[in-house]
Amino acid sequence: MTLLETDRPTLDLEDIVESAAVALEGASSLEVIRWAAATFGDRICLTSSMSDAALIHLVSKVKPGIDVLFVDTGYHFAETIGTRDAVEAVYPVNVINVTPSRTVEEQEAALGPRLYGRNPDLCCHLRKVEPLGRALEGYMAWFSGIRRDETASRRDRRVVEWDRKRGMVKVNPILDWTQEDMDNYMSDNGVIVNPLHYDGYPSIGCAPCTRPVAAGEDPRSGRWAGTGKTECGIHL
């Protein structure tokens, strides 16, 4: 039984978000996760791109057995699929493979080849945003691994937010972590890391839209390089 079911059954979710965002600003990641787990119970999940398992490791310490949603776009690197399989084998979580409504072949038959190059926003919507939206429908809240230091559009985010697009609560436990914090946590805890990180890919998306990053470049400059695009749309 969750706090929603016992303490405040009629309280609007947006009211919960506002009070929690204020109360938890500056709280530790584990405090944020404990609050979310106590509030939403089994109606909260975690999403992961399988770039690394830092958030999965962190959340599973508080809520073992949590659903982890991975959007399999059909364009992932083999290393990313391997990371997903390793996470499923190692951590006490329930990995759910989320797929788009069309296979890559069906999409190309309907919209032409290499949509990712001609219209990356549409491709991301069809292969990431829309399928994740469907998968999240059974939950009241979701854990996200976004950080303020990643992009300009994430600098004003809050640790607990109202996801207006999906009508649910979004919880960002590692929002204030730096890359150094991430590296230290993964090293100290032996966290599974996508091997592409060691080959010059600090930010990993679909294979056709991700390139290695040279020393000194912005870590996300390898995503949709040359297009001006910085987000897939999931976190907008």
Automatic annotation (TrEMBL):
Pathway: Sulfur metabolism; hydrogen sulfide biosynthesis; sulfite from sulfate
Cofactor binding mode and count: Binds 1 [4Fe-4S] cluster per subunit.
Lineage of the species this protein comes from: Bacteria, Bacillati, Actinomycetota, Actinomycetes, Streptosporangiales
The keyword Oxidoreductase is assigned to this record: yes
Domain Phosphoadenosine phosphosulphate reductase: 49-212
HAMAP family attached to this UniProt entry: CysH
Name recorded for this polypeptide: Adenosine 5'-phosphosulfate reductase
The family this protein is said to belong to: Belongs to the PAPS reductase family. CysH subfamily.
Names of required cofactors: [4Fe-4S] cluster
Primary location group: cytoplasm
SUPFAM superfamilies: Adenine nucleotide alpha hydrolases-like (SSF52402)
Keywords: Cytoplasm, Iron, Iron-sulfur, Metal-binding, Oxidoreductase
Protein purpose: Catalyzes the formation of sulfite from adenosine 5'-phosphosulfate (APS) using thioredoxin as an electron donor.
Catalytic activity: [thioredoxin]-disulfide + sulfite + AMP + 2 H(+) = adenosine 5'-phosphosulfate + [thioredoxin]-dithiol
Residues that hold [4Fe-4S] cluster according to the record: C123, C124, C206, C209
Active-site feature positions: C232 (nucleophile)
Localization of this protein: Cytoplasm
The organism of origin for this protein: Actinomadura rugatobispora
